[in-house]
Amino acid sequence: MFSRRQFLKWAATAVGGATLTGVGGYTYASQIELEWLAIEELVIPIKGLPSSAEGLRLVQLSDFHLYPFIQLPFIQKIVAAVTDLNPDVVLLTGDYVAERADAIFDLAPVLAQLNPTWGMFATLGNHDYWTDSAVVRQGLREAGIPLLLNEGAVIGRDWLYIAGVDDCWAGQPDLEQALAHCPAHVPTVLLAHEPDTAEWWPDDGRVALQLSGHSHGGQIRAPGYGAIFLPYLGQKYGQGLAQVGQMQVYTTRGLGVVGVPLRFHCRPEITLITLTGA
């Protein structure tokens, strides 16, 4: 885990002297881009997707990190934006809290206001463990948000299998257990908080798409250089869509921040994925 002092030094280097149309770079990164939501829309082909599931709309949300820098009004803004997208499924890929596990009791009821057609599913991230994963699980459970820890669920009429593995840094991930009840010939979307774990099972053949977060896209990206820092298990696939063996992996920039309350050239992201047959 990176130190706060290191991250502050990197942030100062990347942002301190920058300007953007007359606005100081630090002011921009801390007061404008920090909550300037971006909706990233993708169409992703999925081998074996039945024609009845053509156009299925998934929204991925990740890395909320509620408190101390991210507050509930921003979460409510996110929920309103997702509601307007009218998704079929909402997928939460971990790191709900930052420093206090009990923040989940404020966050989860707001997220539970989402009412996608075919449900909402979650998995855990490393920060959920580093605070208190039992408390985070309790908060999600009390809000009625299904948590997939090495398990899965079928969407629609055998359209898609949503699987989730436990956090791959601090938990006990088990892909075999997560896929144990997947019906034959039903394509799988896997929720795994850390994106680089895609290389742990690239040729398994059962997972069509892995959705991850964790990296924040670097959170601070220097022009002409890219991410100043990427965390363990988030260094190879820091943001966007990539092909890893037989499957695809998509890494969202996430919504919250850790270390410093800054985003620079790396806006917080709501991801809207439309599935199509390959």
Quick one: overall form?
Answer: globular
CATH class: Alpha Beta
Radius of gyration: 18 Å
Structural class: alpha/beta
Q: With helices defined by DSSP (H or I, 4 residues minimum), what is the helix count?
A: 7
The overall pLDDT, averaged over residues, is 93
Q: How many distinct beta strands?
A: 15
Instruction: Report strand order across the widest sheet.
Output: 7-8-9-10-14-13
- The CA-CA distance between the termini, in Å, is 39 Å
CATH superfamily: Metallo-dependent phosphatases
Helical residue percent band: 10-25%
CATH topology: Purple Acid Phosphatase, chain A, domain 2
Largest sheet: 6 strands, mixed
Blueprint (SSEs and pairs):
Elements: H1 4-15, E1 19-20, E2 23-24, H2 25-32, E3 38-46, E4 57-61, H3 72-85, E5 89-92, H4 104-111, E6 120-122, H5 126-131, H6 133-142, E7 151-155, E8 160-164, H7 175-178, E9 188-191, E10 207-212, E11 221-222, E12 226-227, E13 240-244, E14 247-251, E15 269-277
Parallel strand pairs: 3-15, 4-5, 5-6, 8-9, 9-10, 10-14
Antiparallel strand pairs: 1-2, 4-15, 7-8, 11-12, 13-14
Helix pairs in contact: 3-4, 4-6
